[in-house]
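Q: Hi! First time asking for a complex rather than a single chain. Here are the components, and I think there are two in total. Is that enough to go on?
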Amino acid sequence: MLQELTLKGFTKKLGSKAPMPGGGSAAALSASVSASLVEMVTNLTVGKKKYKEVEQEMEEIRNIAENMRNKFLNDIDRDSDSYEGVTIAFKLPKDTEEEKNIRKEKIQKELKNAALVPLEIAKDAYKILDLAEKVVLKGNQNAVTDGLVATMLSRTAVLSALYNVKINLISIKDEEFVKKITFEMDELSDVNERENKILGMVEL
Amino acid sequence: MLQELTLKGFTKKLGSKAPMPGGGSAAALSASVSASLVEMVTNLTVGKKKYKEVEQEMEEIRNIAENMRNKFLNDIDRDSDSYEGVTIAFKLPKDTEEEKNIRKEKIQKELKNAALVPLEIAKDAYKILDLAEKVVLKGNQNAVTDGLVATMLSRTAVLSALYNVKINLISIKDEEFVKKITFEMDELSDVNERENKILGMVEL
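A: Yes, that's all I need. Here is the structure of the assembled complex.
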């Protein structure tokens, strides 16, 4: 599993000639790092007298962020695997009409999967913005910049994952599917405004 | 060294109660991942007939990106260590006047270092934007989204590192130093426009 590679080993593999892992996995890692920073701010808040009032809320955020950190680590592999599925389908034999049809169908199936995985990453990364906003506003103010960094990493994860959805949608023939996914992408389209709003809450 | 931790181990440590590593190290990792993606696009370009004309340029970019990938991995530790230096200085004894003076001086020295390290990360991450722009424009177009993801990761690294500079500048008394650093930060202030320009080069 990619999450078992060292930072050194993972970035080396990412930089290599192999197309996998690629930008989608980088998006998932970015989201995992974002969730970690949110988690750290809650950990620096819980147990402090000054933040007694928000303790329960911070504990709840901590649990969600911890789960997301691990979820996104798995997504690093899931995205890489989904892309690999497409490349394998393209290599299927195409000598007979039957083979051609099987190959075509398989490619379409794998392309859909390779769009759905980063779409899920984008949606989940978008959710971290809510958590980041809360820790920036209510968490330990000594760690406020960590919440801001988390915000930018989530925004980057959302947009990066969406690029990976779009690039796959181009080759998908099922118009209903494309329409549905496009609609779901549109629901995340205010991610830049969301980021700006959170960054604007802190004067530095 | 932090770069020897697994992705799983690093994100867990980042999310923990310990204030180090924090947002500055996350910025360095983000920059390293960005450099890796630039490197990957060059690797997917070099040796392809279609991109024969840009082969030499891509090889040059590959070498720079590879060096930067490793440089930023070291910065993950450097940033964490520089912040630790500040926390250690704050724990120095302050019982006598002499101790107070020594402590004050040491804190100022460590704060300066903790501003200079992320400033260097920000400047170097800013340079990746040039490389990302080139691979997006001239590199293998099948990997164009990887160049766009690299662009957003660099932008996030620059702004994240700058937050870590600013938070340390607040407590630095040396006005000349603050002025100089502020001037150098201003030179990176068009990073959002730079990002927008590169993203705008590709229609998806």
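A: Helices of chain B lie at 7-15, 23-43, 55-90, 97-138, 144-169, 175-186, 191-199. Let me know if you'd like any chain examined more closely.
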